[in-house]
Design brief:
Length: about 290
């Protein structure tokens, strides 16, 4: 009887064993949970309150990566400053770049803002293109499909479940995308200024027009000269909306707003970055509302 119970326990454990998945950002975790369901256990490495370019590679993150079956990253060099040292220290062959348990979701989307050439004078430019593609809801569907395919590759016995979950997710995101496009159709052509080259994909989705950035170049703090030139441009073009993220300083945006009569809108860059954006639906709905209202 004991042998039978032991065998049953082992078989049950094997059947319901979860894939251990780490994602660099919250939005990737939410997609993975929706596609993987109970078949995955997901750890998130970066807080949505912090600058996604610069995450401290803490020992606790190394410990997590040592036990993961799959690592999902945003890619397009967004994590270039902090993921490589973590992977070296974790020494987990499965999740190394090129390993069976490594997935770069930037493969699934078409990147915009790819520079013709790169030099230090241009600031912190990403040579592969703008890595903040998750801000466009239409990009989340091919990302989810790629995650579904990777989960099926690692866990082929549950491929039907991953495919079913993906199709359900796809339907909901397509419905929400259509709803947002229709609800905020009047947003097309609206002129905006942003702090960092962060919201270009959302601006493109809604057909808005970006007039300028508070940063003179990506990663370069605004100078007085650049700030006053931007104020002049905003007055000339009647720009009344400034898009601000949660992690850059807000003093400059507020100063410009006082000089131009513009409104500063704090836009989430990731799920959970601002209050009320803990689901993908709330995340994309909040982006549309803050951009267009």
């Amino acid at each position: 009887m004991i042998k039978i119970l032991t065998l049953t326990t082992l078989l049950t454990t094997a059947i319901f064993a979860q894939l251990n998945v780490a994602t660099t950002y919250n939005y990737l975790a939410e997609v993975t949970k929706r596609v993987g369901g109970d078949l995955v256990k997901v750890d998130v490495l970066a807080s949505p309150k912090l600058d996604p370019h610069f995450i401290t590679p803490k020992p606790s993150l190394i410990a997590k990566l040592r036990r993961e079956d799959l690592l999902i990253i945003n890619g397009a060099q967004l994590e270039i400053g902090w993921i490589p040292p973590l992977l070296r220290s974790a020494n987990n062959s499965k999740i190394q770049n090129g390993g069976s348990g490594f997935l770069d979701v930037s493969r699934a989307v078409t990147l915009i803002d790819k520079p013709a050439n790169v030099s230090r004078s241009m600031g912190d430019v990403h040579p592969d293109g703008n890595p903040h593609f998750a801000l466009n809801i239409d990009n989340i569907i091919p990302i989810a499909e790629l995650i579904s395919m990777k989960l099926s590759q690692l866990d082929p016995n549950n491929q039907a479940t991953y495919s079913k979950n993906f199709e359900e997710f796809k339907g909901k995101m397509e419905e929400l995308s259509s709803k947002l496009k229709k609800e905020y159709a009047s947003c097309e052509g609206k002129k905006v200024v942003q702090y960092h080259e962060l919201f270009n994909y959302a601006i493109e989705f809604y057909g808005m027009k970006k007039v300028g950035n508070i940063e003179p170049f990506p990663g370069i703090s605004p100078s007085s000269k650049h700030t006053f030139e931007l104020i002049k441009t905003m007055k000339e073009q009647n720009v009344k909306t400034i898009l601000q993220d949660v992690y850059h300083e807000k003093k400059t945006a507020n100063f410009i707003a006082n000089k131009t009569g513009a409104e500063v809108k704090v836009i989430p860059h990731d799920v959970g970055a601002v209050e009320g954006t803990d689901t993908l639906e709330d995340f994309y709905t909040t982006i549309g509302k803050e951009l267009c209202q």
